[in-house]
């Protein structure tokens, strides 16, 4: 979506509809939402939502490499916190007897 919007010079309906990167970005977002609906129907909310939090990690890492965004100690600390938190929530608990 960011790549598509970087090519938009004026906000007009036809410019947005014919912008392939923008349309592809929204199509991927719609696919993600559909998969989330299916996952939430079958899975545990306490497992699925932490996995969604990993999107923040992927966006930060990919924006660093693709868009040359800056990383600082605060962002890296946040990323490590999210990864650590998801890992802790994802740990299997011993079975109740």
Compact summary:
With 97 residues, this protein is mainly alpha-helical.
Structural class: mainly alpha
- Taking Cα atoms only, what radius of gyration do you get, to the nearest Å? 18 Å
Largest sheet: none
Mean pLDDT: 87
How does this model look, in words?
The protein is mostly helical and 97 residues long. The protein has two domains: 1-42, no CATH class; 43-97. 75% of the residues lie in helices and 0% in strands. It contains five helices and no strands. The chain has helices spanning 2-6, 13-17, 20-42, 45-66, 73-90. Helix 4 (45-66) runs antiparallel to helix 5. The N and C termini lie far apart (49 Å). The model has no long low-confidence stretch (mean pLDDT 87).
List the helices and strands and how they pair.
Layout: H1 2-6, H2 13-17, H3 20-42, H4 45-66, H5 73-90
What labels describe this entry?
75% helix; single chain; 0% strand; mainly alpha; flat; 5 helices; 97 residues
């Amino acid at each position: 979506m960011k790549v598509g919007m970087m090519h938009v010079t004026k906000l007009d309906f036809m410019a947005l509809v014919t912008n392939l990167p923008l349309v592809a970005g929204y199509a991927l977002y719609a696919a993600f939402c559909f998969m989330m609906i299916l996952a939430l129907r079958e899975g545990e909310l306490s497992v699925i939502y932490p996995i969604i939090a990993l999107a923040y990690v992927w966006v930060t890492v990919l924006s660093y490499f693709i868009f040359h965004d800056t990383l600082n100690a605060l962002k890296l600390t946040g990323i490590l916190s999210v990864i650590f938190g998801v890992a802790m929530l994802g740990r299997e608990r011993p079975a109740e007897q």
